[in-house]
Amino acid sequence: MEVIPSIDLEGGRAVKRVKGEKGTGLILGDPIEIAYRLTEDGARWLHIVDLDGVELGHPANLRIASKMKRELGARIQYGGGIRSIEHTLEAAGSVDRIVVGSAWITDPGFLDRLSDVLREDRVLAAVEERGGRIVYSGWTKEASISVEEAIRMLEVKRIGGYLYTQVDVEGTLAGPRMKDVEVLRRMTSKLLIYAGGISSLEHLRALCHAGVDAAILGMAIYTGSMNLRGAMEAGRCRRNV
What we know:
Layout: E1 2-10, E2 13-18, E3 21-29, H1 31-40, E4 45-50, H2 51-56, H3 62-72, E5 75-79, H4 85-92, E6 97-100, H5 102-106, H6 110-115, E7 123-130, E8 133-136, E9 141-146, H7 147-154, E10 161-166, H8 178-187, E11 191-195, H9 201-209, E12 214-217, H10 219-222, H11 228-234
Parallel strand pairs: 1-4, 1-12, 4-5, 5-6, 6-7, 7-10, 10-11, 11-12
Antiparallel strand pairs: 1-2, 2-3, 7-8, 8-9
């Protein structure tokens, strides 16, 4: 299982919010310096969340993400404000993998059109869940579908997989709800990346044994609850057959 550290961008700085709420959490500083330290510790991928892009409705921090890729050699997974084909192609020119959230919810045909212009393994659908329901637009709006309904809808799309976020534990270090993760894993053979509340090596081992392909780490690294090298070692597990 790949362990992917996250860097959330707001106003040119790296931050880490609690449950996505503006003004909460940590202000971390220069995102390039943070990315350098993470890659020095062995990160092969970086997960970049463009919080400004979420609010504006279009990517706002691609320059920073592109610099990380160019100068550090890391592979970049990028989401936030990607709500049109034009925005997606702009981002795809700078990063390796795109995370699409609001666009697939508000425009059911978006992913079909996107698959005509971008290779499917470069696209993830964000499945962001709070209280069993899908949320979007920076987690400020709730859709009328459940997580299971969303997966059934998305399985027929030409995408590489899913970024599944448990919003109600994001940034809290409270740990994943493993039963929900296991349900999603049984529903799809596509790439499944988990985010939300990871704070221990035990959490990572549980995700790995459940068959999750990658886990996103943020608050745990930045508060010192975990170190990246130890987390990456915990991701090397035997999966259940």
